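Lab notebook: predicted structure, single chain.

Context: the supervisor wants predicted structures on file for every construct in the current expression panel, including those that have not yet been purified. This is the next one on the list. No modifications to the sequence; it matches the entry in the shared construct table.
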Amino acid sequence: MLLLLPQILLLDQQVKDVGRRIKQLLRMLSTETAIMPDARQDVDLMLSIPGIGPGIAATIYGEASRLIRDRDYHALRGYAGTAPVTKQSAKRKTVNMRYACSSRLRQAMHHWANRSIICDSRSRQHYDQLRAAGHHHARAVCGLADLSSDC
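Prediction complete. Output recorded below exactly as produced.
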């Protein structure tokens, strides 16, 4: 254990440094409008959403900045994996989870939705409605991340 302690302390320090750097970059994006004019509005809006902290905001903005800048909601849903895939034949219709997406963005959206259940009463109410409708936890969180009931 004593051999691992210096490595654990170093990793802890590096995690704190990365967190500080992320906050600094987000602050820089929200103040400098010459580089990306809409970045300030996007970052400020994203950080105002309950459950989104600097780490999740940096992941979402880093993975999908072009889609956010273009305000392409449908493409963002598909790229984040929150939009469902509907397969329909003459007699059968199935709705499945989307697997062709950015795994980092999907994890960030899932983490945000989980955090928003704790932080925001409206998100908790929507989650409880989905659970009362018979959906399991992962499906309800996906529905919350998609902000619709058809995930």
